[in-house]
Design brief:
The protein is mainly α. Among the domains are: 99 residues, Up-down Bundle (Four Helix Bundle (Hemerythrin (Met), subunit A)), CATH 1.20.120.230; 113 residues, Nucleotidyltransferases  domain 2 (Four Helix Bundle (Hemerythrin (Met), subunit A)), CATH 1.20.120; 114 residues, Up-down Bundle (Four Helix Bundle (Hemerythrin (Met), subunit A)), CATH 1.20.120; 164 residues, Alpha-catenin/vinculin-like (Four Helix Bundle (Hemerythrin (Met), subunit A)), CATH 1.20.120.230. It contains 22 helices and no strands. The radius of gyration is 31 Å and the shape is globular.
């Protein structure tokens, strides 16, 4: 809205209608600032150490908002009464100054609020650590139950705070690391419960103590990593040194080689040779692995040798071209560049095939969990000899899976997937020995229900990680085959030929800078509408309601379309946008169906209005689908189609903003006292609830598995301690 005000065209004459529209925008900015500042002031009152700074920033923002409203007020503008048209602003520079002050003060408020959120997470972590220390030292079952109940509540708080933070992170690498740390904490919370119970029941059992100590140690490491991510720091000022994968190495190497077309002097031949050496050193992870097939090993060695030869040829032509830029030499250089890049592509394809085929075979082989089943049976039988035999087999399985994760990391294709591979490797490394110690404890105490339950929990964690590996393998293959993003709920991109018979004939097109500028205002309006829809859906107490689910889905898709207008997000081409518009329209039709269902539940007086709105929605979604499916040839026609899709999506979102509060009101009226709207919580509570961030398809970050944890606590009767 500020952009709209600043970029208005400086025409000498304006109609009353236009001027009133400008006034409405100015008032909307002021109202939005007022709401924003109210939250900032509430934060200030709850955090005395930053109250003064926050209050000053809020006052500045409020003053700037009021100034903008005054400068766009029709009544305050000086214009000749005899003229049918009135002049535009008498003081545009004043609006610019006010806008700058507003953006500056809003930024201050956001930075201060961010500092408070970080402090909250650190405080929550410290509470969890303190309670963990108490849990480690308890000697009675009754004391453990009391402290663990407190620990569960603290972990719930920490889960919500870190979940909100994970949603807010813009860096995909940090987001992946946060997700990995939170996954560890989620699984370890249940492990800590059963491992501690086993230790209390069998205090003299060494394997039970080792099992419990391993869980506490892993939880502390995960808590520390969360704080590193949140504060963007590492202990003792160390820099994070992430291992380089073959994929990233090849990508960088090819970029340097292809850069020779533009500049023959920007790097030395030694640099290029060193880069290739590093890549080929990493291929030794494949050629030295006992699990790589003979065929893959031979192909990788052949391609490594060929890559060296191609680079030698490239360097030879490159050096000649530096001395003498003849047409023939430049053609030879182009051929050498193409052959080198082609060789690296073949090497990349070969290591990808080696890693993914190994992973597929291992996951298929271990899908029956025979070793885990055998450990459970022999443990209950108290057969120490058989347990020892199967723990050896589990150790072998662990080594295979760890090696699989290391090789997959090399071919994962993106940093977040690399981090997921590293997390999986760590999980297998740690969980394997923990299963062994849990099985040994059960074998020593075969009649112990708690020891049996403990082994079950660790085996479930192993099985869960194997299941996650199947999903990870699919994502890695998606990235390799150019289907990145297909796994996402609302941003599924079309595979060639899958959704549209003519798709192969269409050339993917991106908006250029000029087109992005033309459509920016429409995109901004769509962005504001997604915020309004998110605000409405958050007011519903029943977040599982079908209407809310469809509304959130549509908001998420509309936001991705807004990002497209800025040249950002997962929708890379116009074809992606058109496909997204079709899915959006389908989701809108489903919402209309849910409205029809609701109309059967409401009073007769309210039914006509609801059905009328539902029919409006169906009509608008049909129009959007027709537009999205219509063919468009040429740059101008394609842009017109993009503009029409965004415009019609905006119209649907406008209707959705009216529908959501109406539906909630009718439900509340119908349920006679069972309110569907919840009051706006205080700021602290709002940060602690499980939020729904409509800014990405992965916006729902679940809290830890606390429900099952609480059930365990409830079942821990004092009779068990006997």
């Amino acid at each position: 809205q500020i952009t709209t005000l600043i970029n208005h065209k400086d025409k000498p004459k304006r109609s009353d209608k236009t001027l009133q529209a400008i006034q409405r925008v100015g008032q909307a900015v002021n109202l939005a600032v007022g709401r924003f500042v109210t939250v900032g002031e509430a934060i200030a009152n709850e955090n005395h150490e930053l109250k003064e700074e926050m209050s000053v920033a809020c006052i500045e923002a409020r003053r700037a908002g009021e100034t903008i409203a005054q400068l766009t007020d029709v009544a305050s503008l000086d214009h000749p009464e005899s003229d049918s048209h009135i002049t535009i602003f008498t003081d545009k520079t004043g609006v610019v100054k006010a806008a700058r002050l507003l953006l500056s003060s809003v930024t201050k408020v956001l930075v201060l609020a961010d500092r408070i959120v970080i402090k909250q997470i650190i405080t929550s972590r410290n509470k969890v650590l303190a309670t963990m220390e108490q849990l480690e030292k308890v000697s009675s079952f009754q004391e453990f139950v009391q402290i663990f109940s407190q620990f569960g509540n603290e972990m719930v708080e920490f889960a919500h705070l870190t979940g909100d933070r994970q949603n807010d992170l813009k860096d995909e690498k940090k987001k992946a690391r946060m997700a990995a740390s939170r996954a560890v904490l989620e699984k370890c919370t249940m492990m800590l419960l059963t491992a501690s119970k086993t230790c209390l029941r069998h205090p003299d059992c060494e394997s039970a103590r080792i099992n419990k100590d391993g869980v506490f140690h892993r939880m502390r490491l995960a808590l520390e990593q969360v704080i590193e991510i949140v504060t963007d720091s590492r202990p003792n000022g160390e820099n994070e040194m992430a291992p380089i994968s073959i994929y990233s190495g090849i990508k960088e190497f090819k970029n340097k080689v292809e850069g020779l077309r533009e500049n023959l002097y920007f790097l030395s031949k030694e640099n290029l040779s060193t880069m290739l050496e590093v890549i080929l050193e990493h291929t030794e992870d494949f050629t030295d692995s006992a699990y790589t097939s003979h065929e893959h090993r031979e192909h990788i060695l052949e391609l490594s040798k060929q890559a060296k030869m191609e680079l030698e040829q490239l360097v030879s032509v490159w050096m000649q071209a530096q001395n003498q830029k003849t047409k023939d030499l430049m053609e030879d250089l182009e051929v050498a560049i193409l052959k080198t890049c082609q060789c690296m592509n073949e090497l990349k394809r070969e290591v990808h095939s080696a890693a993914t085929s190994l992973a597929a075979d291992l996951l298929k082989y271990h899908t029956d969990h025979m070793v885990l089943k055998a450990l459970k049976i022999t443990g209950v039988e108290g057969n120490l000899e058989a347990v020892a035999e199967y723990t050896c087999k589990l150790s072998e399985q662990k080594e295979q899976l760890v090696e699989m994760c290391r090789l997959l990391r090399h071919v994962s294709g993106t940093e977040p997937l690399e981090i997921t591979c590293i997390h999986a490797e760590d999980t297998f490394q740690v969980t394997g020995p923990q299963i062994i110690s849990a099985a040994e404890t059960l074998a020593l105490h075969p009649s112990s229900k708690i020891a049996k339950e403990n082994l079950e929990v660790f085996c479930e964690a192993w099985e869960s990680q194997l299941s996650d590996m199947s999903l990870l393998l699919r994502e890695i293959n998606d990235v390799f085959e150019g289907r990145r993003g297909e796994k996402r709920v609302y941003l599924s991109l079309p595979r060639p030929g899958k959704h549209n018979a003519n798709l192969k004939a269409l050339k993917p097109v991106k908006l250029d800078t000029e087109e992005q500028a033309k459509i920016a205002k429409l995109g901004l309006e769509l962005h504001l509408l997604t915020s309004d829809v998110d605000s409405e859906t958050e007011k519903w107490e029943d977040q599982e309601n079908e209407i809310v689910q469809h509304g959130q889905g549509m908001s998420s898709m509309a936001y991705s379309m807004y990002l497209f207008t800025r040249g950002e997000g997962l929708l890379k081409t116009t074809q992606d946008l058109f496909h997204q518009a079709e899915i959006f329209a389908t989701e809108g039709t489903k919402l209309a169906s849910a409205l029809h269902t609701l109309s059967d539940q409401v009073h007769d007086d309210d039914k006509p209005l609801l059905l009328l709105e539902a029919e409006k929605l169906i009509s608008m979604c049909k129009q959007l689908q027709i537009t999205a499916k219509a063919s468009a040839q040429g740059k101008s026609a394609t842009f017109t189609k993009v503009d029409a899709c965004i415009l019609k999506t905006r119209n649907v979102m406008t209707l959705l903003c009216q529908l959501l509060p109406l539906c909630c009101k009718l439900l509340r009226k119908n349920k006679a006292g069972n309110a569907c709207l919840k009051p706006a919580p205080p700021w602290k509570e709002d940060r602690l609830r499980t939020g729904t961030n409509a800014r990405s398809p992965e916006r729902k970050v679940d809290a830890f598995g606390i429900k099952s944890l609480e059930n365990h606590v409830a079942n821990m009767t004092f009779l068990e301690s006997k």
